[in-house]
């Protein structure tokens, strides 16, 4: 492709420069502004990264206007229909779908790493009985760096691989321990003869005093949710993992910072907030009053599970989740679930309202996911933890991609300073 340039003219000085334009395989071009400060003495200003590509990546592509999501080139609907979470994790990490031998090996590696050190397990006792599981998960993940000194050289590819397997394998165990801790029930050890999601359900719901049988539909629904949440290019938590990791911090610290960023209601915390919202609305009759509140900018009320920074069309994940939602509820004999009915009516009303139409606000991945989690018996406070389990695959893949790049730089944005200019210190008695 011809070398594209972006001509920039400083109106004050008349100084011109040709900024290089880089093209990806698909998606908009980016203007490389690296030389802007050197040539013109200015920075760009883009709070919230509204128009900034923070990095180059080969992992995930989103076309927000068309509602397209590709993992390593594969459409999300094909992966949702045909793949499994572990296969998707392999794909995200390694770039291509595994063959049968590679997949079996990967599954074996994950299954062999499911247990966590007993000292880590005892740390859960240090949390207050009502600690939010996300607080426990981020704390325990950060603490893992104190346990795995054998594989912490981030510049050693084999160490990075062991780390990737460990964290993907252990994050369900950590999540289950947080859940059991909150319930006051004994921790249930992982079963390596079960699949990833069946084992997760087993660790959540089994108790030592009676046998537990995993419902295959519950495992299937969970696997689908994990596939859909596994990666989403440079979202807030992934960017946080990259930024923390760019300092050379150990990978457990980087992933823990991602867990913390995910917790917010504008990001992964939205699935919990959607159910709070639906319960608060209560009945279909109250929807108009609630929508009026959402439209009133002074209320600070948002329609949770709606809107997305990148999607200005249906979030492709939301459609897949809505179908699964019906399947799960029908199978569980709860097809007439009042929350689902309320959510559907709310969606219909919002999608025909000019406020949402004009702002291109559509249901996102989290509008329906909480309803499925509830149907599977997962408590609300665990919803964002479920998201974290899935997104761990994406976080690790992005961290790997960044660390293995020989041109990696520490992430260090600049600012527009609007504080006081230089002034002299005034003695306390003279202020
Ligand atoms: N309800 C009501 N108004 C909204 C909503 C919403 N959910 N989302 C955006 N808007 C309005 C917003 O008030 C603004 O209006 P105006 O132009 O009049 O000021 C306009 O739409 C643009 O919103 P924005 O806040 O500038 O958009 P953003 O790209 O910064 O925010 C978002 C994206 C996801 C944070 C936002 O849509 C939101 O808060 N949604 C609700 C929370 C949610 O569901 N989050 C999960 C996102 S998907 C999963 C994930 O990525 O973790």
What does this protein structure show overall?
The chain has 431 residues and is mainly alpha-helical. The protein contains 18 helices and 6 strands. The chain has helices spanning 36-40, 76-82, 85-94, 100-111, 118-123, 133-143, 157-183, 196-205, 216-229, 236-245, 251-262, 270-281, 287-295, 316-331, 338-351, 354-358, 366-375, 383-403; strands spanning 5-9, 16-22, 30-31, 60-63, 68-71, 74-75. A 3-stranded antiparallel beta sheet has the order 1-2-3, with no helix packed on it. A 3-stranded antiparallel beta sheet has the order 4-5-6. A hairpin with a 7-residue loop joins β2 (16-22) and β3 (30-31). α9 (216-229) runs antiparallel to α14 (316-331). It is globular, with a radius of gyration of 24 Å. The N and C termini lie far apart (64 Å). The mean pLDDT is 94. The structure holds carboxymethyl coenzyme *A.
Can I get a quick summary?
This protein has 431 residues and is mainly alpha-helical.
Mean pLDDT equals 94
Overall spatial form: globular
Chemical compounds bound to the protein: carboxymethyl coenzyme *A
**What structural class do the secondary elements suggest?**
mainly alpha
Q: Could you give a short account of the major beta sheet?
A: 3 strands, antiparallel
End-to-end Cα distance? 64 Å
Query: What is the tally of helical segments?
Result: 18
Poorly predicted sequence stretches spanning 5 or more consecutive residues? none
Q: What sequence of helices (H) and strands (E) makes up the elements?
A: EEEHEEEHHHHHHHHHHHHHHHHH
Q: Number of DSSP strands?
A: 6
